[in-house]
Specification:
Structural class: mainly alpha
Number of strands: 0
Number of helices: 14
CATH architecture of the domain at 1-151: Alpha Horseshoe
Strand content: under 5%
Helix content: 55-70%
Distance between the termini: 25 Å
CATH class of the domain at 1-151: Mainly Alpha
CATH topology of the domain at 1-151: Serine Threonine Protein Phosphatase 5, Tetratricopeptide repeat
Amino acid sequence: MNRQWCSRIWILIALFAGAALTGCQGLPRSDLDDNTGNLGEVDNTKKGAGETYMQIAAHFLETGQLDLALINAKTSLEKEPDNAQTHNIIALIYQRLGEQALADRHFKSAIKLQPKNSYIRNAYGAFLCAQDRFEEADQQFQMALENPLYNTPWVALTNAGICSGRAGELGQSEAYLRSALRRNPTFSAALLEMAKVSLENEEYLSARGYLQRYLAVAQHSSESLWVGIRVERRLGDENAVASYSLMLNSGFPDSEETQLLRESTKP
Protein backbone atom coordinates (compact mmCIF):
# COMPACT_ATOMS: atom_id res chain seq x y z
CA MET A 1 0.00 0.00 0.00
CA ASN A 2 1.25 3.44 -0.88
CA ARG A 3 2.63 5.08 2.25
CA GLN A 4 1.49 8.49 1.01
CA TRP A 5 -2.22 7.71 1.31
CA CYS A 6 -2.61 9.78 4.46
CA SER A 7 -1.62 12.97 2.69
CA ARG A 8 -4.28 12.63 0.04
CA ILE A 9 -8.06 12.67 0.15
CA TRP A 10 -8.89 11.40 3.63
CA ILE A 11 -6.57 13.70 5.50
CA LEU A 12 -7.79 16.67 3.48
CA ILE A 13 -11.37 15.81 4.32
CA ALA A 14 -10.42 15.76 7.98
CA LEU A 15 -8.68 19.10 7.61
CA PHE A 16 -11.51 21.01 5.98
CA ALA A 17 -14.25 19.44 8.06
CA GLY A 18 -12.31 20.49 11.11
CA ALA A 19 -11.56 23.94 9.76
CA ALA A 20 -15.27 24.57 9.38
CA LEU A 21 -15.58 24.24 13.15
CA THR A 22 -12.80 26.69 13.95
CA GLY A 23 -13.57 29.09 16.75
CA CYS A 24 -15.92 26.67 18.53
CA GLN A 25 -13.78 26.29 21.60
CA GLY A 26 -16.40 27.81 23.90
CA LEU A 27 -16.04 27.48 27.66
CA PRO A 28 -14.54 24.44 29.41
CA ARG A 29 -17.12 21.78 30.17
CA SER A 30 -17.29 18.51 32.04
CA ASP A 31 -16.55 15.31 30.14
CA LEU A 32 -19.33 13.70 32.18
CA ASP A 33 -21.96 15.81 30.42
CA ASP A 34 -22.17 13.99 27.08
CA ASN A 35 -19.90 12.68 24.36
CA THR A 36 -20.28 15.53 21.91
CA GLY A 37 -17.60 17.78 23.41
CA ASN A 38 -16.81 20.89 21.39
CA LEU A 39 -18.87 19.60 18.47
CA GLY A 40 -21.96 20.02 20.63
CA GLU A 41 -21.26 23.52 21.89
CA VAL A 42 -22.80 26.75 20.68
CA ASP A 43 -20.24 29.06 19.07
CA ASN A 44 -20.33 32.23 21.13
CA THR A 45 -16.71 33.15 20.55
CA LYS A 46 -15.41 36.05 18.51
CA LYS A 47 -13.09 35.10 15.70
CA GLY A 48 -9.84 37.02 16.00
CA ALA A 49 -6.67 37.45 14.01
CA GLY A 50 -5.55 33.93 14.83
CA GLU A 51 -8.63 32.58 13.08
CA THR A 52 -7.84 34.55 9.94
CA TYR A 53 -4.28 33.29 9.76
CA MET A 54 -5.47 29.74 10.40
CA GLN A 55 -7.84 29.91 7.43
CA ILE A 56 -5.05 31.26 5.24
CA ALA A 57 -2.76 28.46 6.40
CA ALA A 58 -5.46 25.90 5.52
CA HIS A 59 -5.74 27.37 2.03
CA PHE A 60 -2.00 27.22 1.42
CA LEU A 61 -1.88 23.66 2.75
CA GLU A 62 -4.62 22.68 0.30
CA THR A 63 -2.70 24.19 -2.60
CA GLY A 64 0.60 22.63 -1.54
CA GLN A 65 2.35 25.89 -0.67
CA LEU A 66 3.78 24.51 2.54
CA ASP A 67 6.16 27.39 3.25
CA LEU A 68 3.34 29.92 3.26
CA ALA A 69 1.07 27.53 5.13
CA LEU A 70 3.63 27.14 7.89
CA ILE A 71 4.26 30.89 8.19
CA ASN A 72 0.57 31.61 8.60
CA ALA A 73 -0.04 28.69 10.96
CA LYS A 74 2.79 29.85 13.22
CA THR A 75 1.40 33.39 13.19
CA SER A 76 -2.01 32.02 14.10
CA LEU A 77 -0.55 30.16 17.08
CA GLU A 78 1.31 33.25 18.22
CA LYS A 79 -1.99 35.12 18.36
CA GLU A 80 -4.14 32.24 19.64
CA PRO A 81 -1.93 29.52 21.19
CA ASP A 82 -4.96 27.54 22.39
CA ASN A 83 -6.61 27.19 18.98
CA ALA A 84 -6.97 23.43 18.52
CA GLN A 85 -7.70 23.72 14.81
CA THR A 86 -4.47 25.61 14.21
CA HIS A 87 -2.52 22.93 16.08
CA ASN A 88 -4.23 20.37 13.83
CA ILE A 89 -3.30 22.25 10.68
CA ILE A 90 0.30 22.89 11.69
CA ALA A 91 0.58 19.17 12.54
CA LEU A 92 -0.56 18.32 9.01
CA ILE A 93 1.97 20.77 7.58
CA TYR A 94 4.81 19.27 9.58
CA GLN A 95 3.69 15.80 8.54
CA ARG A 96 3.91 16.81 4.89
CA LEU A 97 7.36 18.29 5.56
CA GLY A 98 8.59 15.05 7.13
CA GLU A 99 8.92 16.62 10.60
CA GLN A 100 7.13 13.76 12.30
CA ALA A 101 8.08 14.56 15.91
CA LEU A 102 6.77 18.11 15.56
CA ALA A 103 3.62 16.84 13.86
CA ASP A 104 3.00 14.40 16.69
CA ARG A 105 3.47 17.12 19.29
CA HIS A 106 0.95 19.44 17.67
CA PHE A 107 -1.61 16.67 17.14
CA LYS A 108 -1.39 15.92 20.85
CA SER A 109 -1.79 19.60 21.68
CA ALA A 110 -4.90 19.77 19.51
CA ILE A 111 -6.39 16.70 21.18
CA LYS A 112 -5.60 18.04 24.64
CA LEU A 113 -7.52 21.21 23.78
CA GLN A 114 -10.43 19.40 22.13
CA PRO A 115 -10.37 15.72 23.17
CA LYS A 116 -13.74 14.93 21.62
CA ASN A 117 -13.16 16.55 18.26
CA SER A 118 -13.68 13.71 15.79
CA TYR A 119 -11.99 15.49 12.90
CA ILE A 120 -8.77 15.93 14.85
CA ARG A 121 -8.91 12.35 16.13
CA ASN A 122 -9.30 11.11 12.56
CA ALA A 123 -6.39 13.22 11.33
CA TYR A 124 -4.16 11.98 14.15
CA GLY A 125 -5.18 8.39 13.43
CA ALA A 126 -4.15 8.81 9.80
CA PHE A 127 -0.82 10.22 10.94
CA LEU A 128 -0.21 7.31 13.33
CA CYS A 129 -1.05 4.78 10.62
CA ALA A 130 1.49 6.39 8.31
CA GLN A 131 4.04 5.78 11.07
CA ASP A 132 3.00 2.08 11.24
CA ARG A 133 1.58 2.67 14.74
CA PHE A 134 -1.47 0.63 13.84
CA GLU A 135 -3.01 -0.06 17.25
CA GLU A 136 -2.71 3.57 18.30
CA ALA A 137 -4.21 4.65 15.00
CA ASP A 138 -7.19 2.35 15.43
CA GLN A 139 -7.82 3.78 18.90
CA GLN A 140 -7.96 7.29 17.45
CA PHE A 141 -10.42 6.24 14.73
CA GLN A 142 -12.62 4.59 17.37
CA MET A 143 -12.54 7.74 19.48
CA ALA A 144 -13.52 9.77 16.43
CA LEU A 145 -16.52 7.51 15.89
CA GLU A 146 -17.72 7.79 19.49
CA ASN A 147 -19.01 11.32 18.95
CA PRO A 148 -22.65 11.12 17.76
CA LEU A 149 -22.33 14.55 16.13
CA TYR A 150 -19.46 13.51 13.85
CA ASN A 151 -20.83 14.40 10.43
CA THR A 152 -18.53 12.22 8.30
CA PRO A 153 -18.01 8.92 10.16
CA TRP A 154 -17.40 7.13 6.85
CA VAL A 155 -14.10 9.01 6.58
CA ALA A 156 -12.76 7.62 9.85
CA LEU A 157 -14.14 4.18 8.99
CA THR A 158 -12.41 4.24 5.61
CA ASN A 159 -9.15 5.32 7.21
CA ALA A 160 -9.54 2.54 9.76
CA GLY A 161 -10.13 0.08 6.93
CA ILE A 162 -7.05 1.21 5.02
CA CYS A 163 -4.96 1.10 8.17
CA SER A 164 -6.16 -2.40 9.05
CA GLY A 165 -5.27 -3.51 5.53
CA ARG A 166 -1.76 -2.09 5.92
CA ALA A 167 -1.48 -4.02 9.18
CA GLY A 168 -2.40 -7.23 7.33
CA GLU A 169 -5.86 -7.50 8.89
CA LEU A 170 -7.90 -7.92 5.72
CA GLY A 171 -11.02 -9.18 7.47
CA GLN A 172 -11.10 -6.19 9.77
CA SER A 173 -10.32 -3.91 6.86
CA GLU A 174 -13.31 -5.20 4.91
CA ALA A 175 -15.59 -4.83 7.94
CA TYR A 176 -14.61 -1.19 8.39
CA LEU A 177 -15.03 -0.41 4.70
CA ARG A 178 -18.44 -2.06 4.50
CA SER A 179 -19.50 -0.03 7.52
CA ALA A 180 -18.27 3.13 5.79
CA LEU A 181 -20.30 2.31 2.67
CA ARG A 182 -23.42 1.61 4.70
CA ARG A 183 -23.17 5.19 5.95
CA ASN A 184 -22.22 6.67 2.59
CA PRO A 185 -22.66 4.28 -0.37
CA THR A 186 -21.07 6.72 -2.82
CA PHE A 187 -17.90 7.54 -0.88
CA SER A 188 -15.31 7.03 -3.61
CA ALA A 189 -12.38 6.33 -1.31
CA ALA A 190 -14.17 3.44 0.38
CA LEU A 191 -15.34 2.04 -2.98
CA LEU A 192 -11.80 1.98 -4.35
CA GLU A 193 -10.46 0.37 -1.20
CA MET A 194 -13.15 -2.31 -1.36
CA ALA A 195 -12.14 -2.99 -4.96
CA LYS A 196 -8.59 -3.55 -3.71
CA VAL A 197 -9.71 -5.77 -0.84
CA SER A 198 -11.84 -7.84 -3.23
CA LEU A 199 -8.89 -8.17 -5.59
CA GLU A 200 -6.70 -9.31 -2.70
CA ASN A 201 -9.37 -11.88 -1.75
CA GLU A 202 -9.50 -13.12 -5.37
CA GLU A 203 -13.13 -11.96 -5.68
CA TYR A 204 -12.60 -10.48 -9.11
CA LEU A 205 -16.19 -9.86 -10.18
CA SER A 206 -16.82 -8.11 -6.88
CA ALA A 207 -13.69 -6.02 -7.42
CA ARG A 208 -14.93 -5.03 -10.88
CA GLY A 209 -18.29 -4.07 -9.40
CA TYR A 210 -16.75 -1.82 -6.76
CA LEU A 211 -14.53 -0.21 -9.38
CA GLN A 212 -17.56 0.49 -11.55
CA ARG A 213 -19.31 2.09 -8.58
CA TYR A 214 -16.20 4.15 -7.93
CA LEU A 215 -16.16 5.40 -11.53
CA ALA A 216 -19.79 6.47 -11.21
CA VAL A 217 -18.76 9.09 -8.65
CA ALA A 218 -15.06 9.79 -9.33
CA GLN A 219 -12.55 10.03 -12.14
CA HIS A 220 -9.81 7.52 -12.74
CA SER A 221 -6.56 7.91 -10.86
CA SER A 222 -3.33 6.02 -11.44
CA GLU A 223 -4.32 3.87 -8.48
CA SER A 224 -7.77 2.97 -9.79
CA LEU A 225 -6.38 2.21 -13.26
CA TRP A 226 -3.81 -0.16 -11.82
CA VAL A 227 -6.54 -1.90 -9.84
CA GLY A 228 -8.60 -2.18 -13.02
CA ILE A 229 -5.69 -3.65 -14.97
CA ARG A 230 -5.08 -6.35 -12.38
CA VAL A 231 -8.76 -7.18 -12.07
CA GLU A 232 -9.32 -7.46 -15.82
CA ARG A 233 -6.21 -9.57 -16.24
CA ARG A 234 -7.70 -12.06 -13.81
CA LEU A 235 -11.06 -11.95 -15.59
CA GLY A 236 -9.42 -12.37 -18.98
CA ASP A 237 -10.75 -9.19 -20.60
CA GLU A 238 -7.81 -8.20 -22.79
CA ASN A 239 -9.61 -5.21 -24.30
CA ALA A 240 -10.24 -3.73 -20.87
CA VAL A 241 -6.63 -4.35 -19.87
CA ALA A 242 -5.42 -2.59 -23.00
CA SER A 243 -7.76 0.36 -22.44
CA TYR A 244 -6.76 0.80 -18.79
CA SER A 245 -3.09 0.44 -19.69
CA LEU A 246 -3.34 3.12 -22.35
CA MET A 247 -5.03 5.52 -19.92
CA LEU A 248 -2.42 4.83 -17.26
CA ASN A 249 0.55 5.29 -19.58
CA SER A 250 -0.79 8.43 -21.20
CA GLY A 251 -2.42 10.08 -18.21
CA PHE A 252 0.06 9.21 -15.46
CA PRO A 253 3.41 8.46 -17.15
CA ASP A 254 5.52 9.18 -14.06
CA SER A 255 3.37 7.42 -11.48
CA GLU A 256 4.39 4.48 -9.35
CA GLU A 257 1.56 2.47 -10.87
CA THR A 258 2.81 3.07 -14.40
CA GLN A 259 6.21 1.77 -13.36
CA LEU A 260 4.53 -1.31 -11.89
CA LEU A 261 2.67 -1.83 -15.16
CA ARG A 262 5.86 -1.64 -17.17
CA GLU A 263 7.63 -4.07 -14.90
CA SER A 264 4.69 -6.47 -15.08
CA THR A 265 4.83 -6.57 -18.89
CA LYS A 266 8.55 -7.14 -19.24
CA PRO A 267 9.37 -10.42 -21.05
